[in-house]
Amino acid sequence: MSYLKIGIAVAILLVLLKWLIPKWLFEDLRYLRIIMSAKKSGDLKVKNNLTFSKLLSINAKKYPTKVYLYYEDETYTFAQMDALVNRVARSLISLGVGQGDQVALYMYSEPMYLAIVFASIRLGAEIGLINSNLKKSPLSHSLKMVEAKFLLVGNDSNLEQAVENIRPSIPDTKIIFCGDSTNETSFLSTVEKASPLKLEEKYLPTNISMSDTACYIFTSGTTGLPKAVTMSHAKVVRISEVCVFVNMSPDDILYTALPLYHTAGLLAACMCAVNIGCSVVLRRKFSASNLLSDCRKYKVTMLQYIGELIRYLCSQPPSPHDKDHSIRMAYGNGMRADVWNKFIERFGKKIKIREFYAATEGNCGFINMFDEVGYVGTCSPLMKKLSWSFLCSI
Ligand SMILES: *[C@@H]1O[C@H](CO)[C@@H](O)[C@H](O)[C@H]1NC(C)=O
Ligand SMILES: *[C@@H]1O[C@H](CO)[C@@H](O)[C@H](O)[C@H]1NC(C)=O
Ligand SMILES: *[C@@H]1O[C@H](CO)[C@@H](O)[C@H](O)[C@H]1NC(C)=O
Ligand SMILES: *[C@@H]1O[C@H](CO)[C@@H](O)[C@H](O)[C@H]1NC(C)=O
User: Ligand 3: which residue has its CA nearest to atom 12?
Assistant: First the structure.
């Protein structure tokens, strides 16, 4: 008899508790755990001076034969990428690039782009990532803003011509055309001839501080000319901790067609892959008609997007093979509710969507961890209280 009473009391208590404890509390606890783990992982790297160049070398030792980068029909393992970075770093040294020098990079997305960024970080130089669509005065404005001592120009006649056109306006900048490796005097052929071995101690700066500038990334310039945002080594490492929020794992294969001169393509994809030790498929230019066949070819599991990209994908003619892929998550920002629903209806409900918003120049961001339409930026009462203390600590 008394057992029955106790049983009823417990049941009533449970119902009351379920009713009293709001659903958001569990989501908040999950979210807090993720924030703490991202912060801890970032702190550890910052404390140990692990710049992206060092993280790449660590991966090269840890997973030498694992593919870091797929690009068209080329593949680069972590070890091959690290060796290429040594070649590029030696070639930059031979041009006179050293610690604290400003180097500007004007190039389309390709493996060499990443190798130059890593090499610049390895040498403690500061690299300005110039929007490859800029020409004329916005181009020379950007180069002047980062006070470029050196300008590396990709192997493409459009880029070369655009630089020739503004040459008189940047008299203090040494212009280096990457050119083609068949040209004996080009930068690329210097790179090919350079040693892939680890740099000698005397060339490796030992005093790179995590608060030193790693790169300059330009905001899209919604108001007037583009503005350069200074990104320290610590900041780029911390931004790439977004991999924790999107639940990236070493087995993932990311796909990005976003330009490397912005935070999303460079940090939230290519540097995340170094951070977590997974692979990334790089595409020079987004193509809606090739996206799905690319994803099948490389067995992509995570797709990076900006809102419009998914809209273009959804406006492709439907195919019976639309659900035939291994994408488990799409992450990025700017997906409208109508596109969101269309996208998962058509390409499969197994695709989770992680929407977040953060500005390159900002110190905080919003994320939709619920994988449901319309939650980005929503806040529970508890998170509203806590967010101030977090804003102050990050
Ligand atoms: C450089 O550009 C030329 C002309 O577009 C092309 O034929 C060549 O393959 C390119 N070289 C490299 C290494 O990308
Ligand atoms: C080879 O490269 C140099 C500079 O890198 C350039 O001035 C020259 O025009 C190039 N030669 C050819 C044949 O493309
Ligand atoms: C990190 O670099 C700074 C600046 O060079 C140095 O003072 C500090 O001792 C380094 N910390 C570690 C753990 O190597
Ligand atoms: C690092 O050390 C070099 C010489 O060893 C020195 O010239 C340079 O100013 C130092 N840089 C920083 C940021 O401390």
Answer: 48
Q: Note down the domain range covering 287.
A: 23-47+239-393
- CA 281 to ligand 2 center in whole angstroms: 31
**Tens of pLDDT, residues 175-230:** 999 999 888 889 999 999 999 999 998 889 989 999 999 999 998 655 677 889 99
Q: Which tokens in the block code for residue 12?
A: 């009533």
Q: For ligand 4, which residues put their CB under 6 angstroms from it?
A: 99, 205, 207, 212
Binding-site residues, ligand 3, Cβ < 6 A: 48-49, 207, 209
Cα 324 to middle of ligand 1, angstroms: 34
In a domain, 296, yes or no: yes
Domain edge (last residue) among 199, 232, 265: 232
Which ligand is located closest to the Cα atom of residue 124?
4
Q: Which residues does ligand 2 sit against, CB inside 6 Å?
A: 177, 179, 183, 185-186
Alpha carbon of 255 to ligand 1 centroid (Å): 24
* Residues 89 and 27 placed together within one structural domain of the fold: no
* Binding site membership of 275 for ligand 1 (Cβ less than 6 Å): no
Instruction: Determine the atom of ligand 2 nearest the C-alpha atom of 177.
Output: 5
Looking at the domain assignment, is residue 4 inside a domain? no
- For residue 180, the ligand closest to its alpha carbon is 1
- Per residue in 87-139, pLDDT (tens digit) is 999 999 999 999 999 999 999 999 999 999 999 999 999 999 999 999 999 99
CA of 209 to the centre of ligand 3 (A): 7
